[in-house]
Specification:
The protein has helices spanning about 15-30, 50-60, 80-90, 110-115, 120-125, 140-150, 155-165, 170-185, 195-200, 205-215, 220-230, 235-255, 260-270, 270-280, 285-305, 310-325, and strands at about 10-15, 40-45, 70-75, 95-105, 130-135, 155, 190. It has about 325 residues and is of the alpha/beta class. It has three domains: about 10-135, P-loop containing nucleotide triphosphate hydrolases (Rossmann fold), CATH 3.40.50.300; about 140-200, Helicase, Ruva Protein, domain 3; about 205-325, Zinc Finger, Delta Prime, domain 3 (Up-down Bundle). A five-stranded parallel β-sheet has the order 2-3-4-1-5, sandwiched between helices. The chain has a two-stranded parallel sheet with strand order 6-7. The model has no long low-confidence stretch (mean pLDDT about 85).
């Protein structure tokens, strides 16, 4: 059962998905420590689940006998009639359930809809409700410093500027790069500009490297989905061929050199951060599978240069072939 310090209904919003996820996790952790051995968590979507489903889940007793957390994503997607069905519940909620409406807000029009929404108004006025906005109040640079501090790392000002310039303000992307840099730094407690230049993938390159990562993991569905936007740019399609071949060559050398860390980076002529990820990727392949992959790539490159086949057809087939390789 939710404690007295908690509300029974929350409407939380932010322009950053990461902040919403963190807020929900904190709430779940709080509920889980207040007399409940296990937390019942239900995740719904306003665009896929109607008001009736939300109300049914809120009135359902916890399977574990404790509190129940019901999270509804994108509540601005509810039509007016659905909002009317939900507002009476906000005034008189089930005390064993905490209902959270979580909305990502982007742009002035979305904020106007937020201020006029019946669910927001009901959460503000209800004794058991609350509305909360989660934003970066101290600036993105401070958020980056704090993220590294949580990993026992210090980041130099030039490195912060580089991250903001090349990665942007999306917290999900920044969080990914912070994690990569912290791992690449190893025992060093400082993140500097040279390390950022070696490890950080720019926004334009990220699309290609995400695609290559999906291919290496043999995730065909994801790889084909990531390939689609690349095919819209002729230059990116050419880069995809070259980078795929180079990455598999590096993985094969990593597999056969039997070196690690700085020694591997020096032998391959790559950064310490790159060698770290090459070691991880090399464990996904046997030497035979890597040689098979390079044969497939060489054949695709020959066909690309000698026959008038559209890049889309060739890259799609290449992706399927690489994802079908054995381990």
């Amino acid at each position: 059962m939710a404690g007295s310090t908690l509300k029974s209904v929350y409407f939380i919003h932010s322009q950053h998905r990461l902040l919403l996820r963190e807020a929900i996790k904190r709430l779940a952790d709080t509920i889980g420590t207040e007399g409940s051995e296990a937390l019942d968590l239900v995740r719904l979507s306003a665009r896929e689940d109607g008001a009736e489903r939300v109300l049914a889940e809120c009135q359902t007793l916890s399977f574990f006998g404790g509190s129940r957390l019901v999270v509804v994503d994108d509540p601005l997607g509810f039509r007016v009639d659905a909002q009317k069905k939900l507002t009476p519940y906000i005034a008189d909620p089930n005390p064993q359930t905490v209902l959270v409406f979580a909305q990502e807000v982007d742009g002035s029009q979305m904020k106007k809809r937020l201020s006029a929404n019946k669910l927001v108004k009901a959460c503000r006025s209800a004794e058991a409700g609350a509305v909360a906005e989660y934003e970066i109040k101290s600036g993105m640079g401070s958020w980056i410093k704090a993220a590294f501090a949580q990993r026992n790392k210090q980041v130099e000002p030039d490195a912060v500027k580089y991250l903001l310039r090349w990665v942007g303000n999306d917290l999900d992307n920044l969080s990914t790069e912070v994690e990569k840099l912290a791992e690449a730094a190893g025992e060093s407690d400082t993140i500097d500009l040279p390390l950022c230049r070696q490890v950080v993938v720019t926004a334009g390159e990220a699309e290609i490297y995400d695609f290559i990562g999906a291919v290496i993991e043999r995730n065909q569905e994801t790889a084909l989905a990531l390939l689609e936007p690349l095919l819209e740019k002729e230059s990116e399609a050419g880069n995809a061929f070259a980078l795929l071949e180079r990455q598999f060559q590096l993985i094969l050398r990593t597999k056969t050199e039997q070196l690690r860390g700085d020694a591997l980076a020096r032998r391959l002529g790559v950064s310490k951060g790159q060698s770290f990820f090459l070691e991880k990727q090399s464990r996904l392949f046997s030497p035979l599978a890597l040689r098979d992959a390079l044969e497939v790539l060489v054949e695709a490159d020959y066909i690309r240069k000698s026959r008038p086949i559209p890049a889309r057809v060739l890259l799609e087939q290449l992706t399927v072939d690489l994802c079908s390789l054995g381990r």
